[in-house]
Design brief:
- The chain has 364 residues and is of the alpha/beta class.
- It is globular and about 60 Å long.
- The strands form three sheets. The protein has a seven-stranded mixed sheet with strand order 1-2-9-6-5-3-4, with helices on both faces. It has a two-stranded antiparallel sheet with strand order 7-8.
- It has helices at residues 25-35, 47-63, 82-94, 109-121, 135-141, 179-196, 198-207, 216-236, 251-260, 267-284, 290-303, 315-323, 352-361; strands spanning 2-6, 16-21, 40-46, 68-73, 101-107, 128-132, 149-151, 154-158, 166-170, 335-340, 343-347.
- β7 and β8 (154-158) form a beta hairpin.
- Bound molecules: nicotinamide-adenine-dinucleotide and zinc ion.
- Nicotinamide-adenine-dinucleotide binds at residues 46, 48-49, 52, 75-77, 80, 107-111, 113, 133-134, 136-137, 140-141, 144, 146, 155-156, 173, 176-177, 181, 184.
């Protein structure tokens, strides 16, 4: 089992470890007993993960004598809402959960964000542990301490920064993941290669379309590298004041595409399109070489992620969404562009005409 330590804010109290390995559920329980994170534990999970892993997880923890209960809710983004959060809070009250109770988020990003949010506000904050089961959650959402729920007016409108006691990444969970879900995570992995790690980028190039067959050893390597990158960026900038912005590479355009499609386009596909657009933009503005641009687009294609924007989305529509992106500061769009693979930078404005032309040029 690999360990990656996350040091936050120079206070050891808020630092925690990320454990990465295969079939680590049993060892997880032993660590819980050693660390004494909670007097008792409550697993929060969604309906799909409950059916696949709920009993096994609860059984493994009970076997070593831990007091473990479980709360579940329907799978899907729709559960990341205030109603589900309140329902969980009421269930916690009924179960007499107190400040010594630790929550375990067993699931993808939806479960992680919702559990973290509830843990951060229940009785002014109780401990929680992340057990991410999607690739996206393992390489992205479980690390960094951002929690949140959606409102009808927007995604992640209510949220907190609240760090877990530990993150347990078991690669065995990925075996049951649907291809599209795997790709959602791979888009973020490609992003890490592009913004921070030319070696990871080369590894991905060498793996090509074999990545999606899910070779566990190779996946372990890329998941570990991805976690290190996200963790390093988060350590420098826990609350997204500066350097953490480079994690938004491909996301300003990607989010606009995702919302403009009414979420018919998955996050990974939208981010892939956004990364392609940002890459072309970087080349057109003469920051990035044509060779690096070609490598990036070729990798995105090889993995089976889209490099074109569907014809039914209008450039005007995408552009309008981008100007409404909550991550913008002031009137100028903060764009993450590239100087080369591994060297991103934040520019405080790109010429509107050029941006429109690049988006229009990518339409199918
Ligand atoms: N907090 C952050 O920093 C951060 C970062 C990125 C994304 N997010 C959030 O994460 C969410 C998306 O996360 P996600 O892509 O993991 O979605 P998800 O949690 O909805 O999981 C996707 C689907 O896979 C299923 N699933 C989970 N694990 C499985 C497994 N091992 N085998 C088979 N099926 C499994 C789930 O039930 C669900 O149907 C969004 O709400 C997004 O806002 C948060
Ligand atoms: Zn993303």
């Amino acid at each position: 089992m690999n360990r990656v330590k996350v040091h936050l804010d120079k206070k050891t109290a808020s630092s925690y470890e990320i454990y990465i390995g295969k079939d680590i559920i049993d060892r997880m329980g032993l660590l819980f007993t050693q660390k004494k994170w909670g007097g008792r534990y409550i697993i929060l999970t969604d309906s799909i993960v409950l059916a696949l892993y709920g009993a096994r997880m609860q059984g493994a923890l009970r076997e070593i004598g831990l007091h473990v209960d479980m709360i579940d809710f329907p799978a899907g983004e729709a559960s990341k809402d205030i109603r589900t959060a309140l329902r969980i809070i009421n269930q916690l009250m009924e179960m007499k959960a107190d400040r010594t109770t630790a929550l375990i988020a067993l699931g993808g990003g939806v479960v992680g964000d919702l559990t973290g949010f509830v843990a951060s506000i229940y009785m002014r904050g109780i401990p929680y542990i992340q057990v991410p089961t999607t690739l996206l959650a393992q390489v992205d959402s479980s690390i960094g301490g951002k929690t949140g729920i959606d409102l009808s007016t927007g995604k992640n409108v209510l949220g907190t920064f609240y760090q877990p006691k530990g993150v347990f990444i078991d690669l065995a969970f990925l075996k049951t993941l649907k291809l599209q879900e795997l790709k959602n995570g791979l888009a973020e992995v490609v992003k890490y290669g592009i913004i921070d790690d030319p070696e990871l980028f080369s590894t991905l190039e060498a793996m090509g379309k074999d990545i999606v067959n899910g070779n566990a050893d190779l996946l372990e390597e890329i998941v570990t590298r991805s976690c290190r990158i996200k963790k390093a960026i988060v350590e420098i900038d826990e609350t997204e004041q500066g350097v953490r912005r480079i994690l938004n590479f491909g996301h300003t355009i990607g989010h606009a595409i995702e919302t403009e499609s009414n979420y018919a386009i998955s996050h990974g596909d939208a981010v892939a399109m956004g990364m392609v657009a940002s890459t072309i933009l970087s080349e057109r503005m003469q920051y990035l070489s044509a060779e690096d641009k070609e490598r990036i687009i070729a990798l995105i294609r090889a993995i089976g992620l889209p490099d074109r924007i569907p014809a039914n989305l209008t450039s005007d529509g995408i552009f309008a969404r981008m100007q409404g992106d909550k991550k913008k500061t002031g009137a100028i769009l903060n764009f993450v562009l590239l100087k080369k693979i591994g060297v991103p930078f934040v520019t405080n404005g790109v010429p509107e005409q050029l941006l429109r032309a690049v988006i229009a040029g990518l339409k199918e």
